[in-house]
Amino acid sequence: MVDLETHWRQQARRVAFEDYRRQGACVWIKPRGTSMRPLIGAKTRLLVEFGAAGAIGDIVVFPLGDILVAHRLVARRQRQGIEVLHTKGDAEPYFDPPIQPGDLLGVVRTLRRSAARPATSLGCTGCAARWIARISYMAGRSAWIARRAMAVLPNPLRRIALGAIPLLSRVAAHILFTPLLWVVWFQSKRIEKLGGGEQE
User: Fold this and answer.
1) Which residues contact 66 (CB under 8 A, 6 or more apart)?
2) How far apart are CA 80 and CA 19, in angstroms?
3) 46 neighbors 32 (Cβ within 8 angstroms)
4) Domain 4-199: which CATH class?
5) DSSP assignments along 94-163, one per residue
6) What's the confidence (pLDDT) of residue 85?
7) pLDDT tens digits, residue range 9-26?
8) Could you give phi then psi for residue 158, rounded to 5 degrees?
9) Model confidence pLDDT, tens digit, residues 152-175
10) Which of 89-103, 139-153, 184-198 bottoms out in mean pLDDT, i.e. has the lowest?
11) What contacts 160, CB < 8 A, 6 or more positions away?
């Protein structure tokens, strides 16, 4: 049974985001889920520039079925003369279904890990974001190849192996991307220290 309250809340959010896109607004939003961990945690807020076009490495906001997601843009391809975008959550093993550029609602420009921390764009734009996109793309391709290869395994073993892919993907994301969080943490401490020095 569909939870109607959740369904209508998601529809209202989508209408609001479409309105933000028409206005070209920049709005702080609170995401849910674990698909972009460790970069985007439970208390992280995202500053989304609605109506912006995404580049490889950007975290883009788009509808995926009935929900709205913020996942990383990892590739652009031409399919029968039509441009399609490939997105993927950093901690997810597989790519999302391809979308078109017109499906994008906005681009995440800045993260704030908590109300007490300063905002940062590290990991959502620029060189670091492009490197994360490359790593995420290769991880997605590897997971897809592993999934195809497991088709030859007998059923109980195949089920166990397929269940291990998402777990391994999340562990790899934490190992690869946690150093980026350390950089953000040191950067925020430096900003706090400079801010404290100016007040004295």
Assistant:
1) 7, 10, 11
2) 31
3) no
4) mainly beta
5) SPPPPB-GGG--EEEEEEESSTTSPPB-BTTBHHHHHHHHHHHHHHHHHHHHHHHHGGGS-HHHHHHHHH
6) 97
7) 888 888 899 999 999 999
8) -60, -45
9) 888 888 888 888 888 888 888 888
10) 184-198
11) none
The one-letter amino acid at 75: A
User: Which residues neighbour 53 within 8 Å (Cβ) at sequence distance 6 or greater?
Assistant: 101, 104, 107
Kind of pairing between the strands at 59-64 and 67-79: antiparallel
Q: Give the residue-averaged pLDDT of 109-116.
A: 86
Hey, what are 55's tokens? 């580049």
Q: What is the pLDDT of residue 128?
A: 86
Measured distance CA(146)–CA(163) in Å, rounded = 12
What burial letters (b/e) apply to 173-197, b meaning 16+ CB within 10 Å? beebbeebbeebeeebeeeeeeeee
What global pTM score does this model have? 0.85
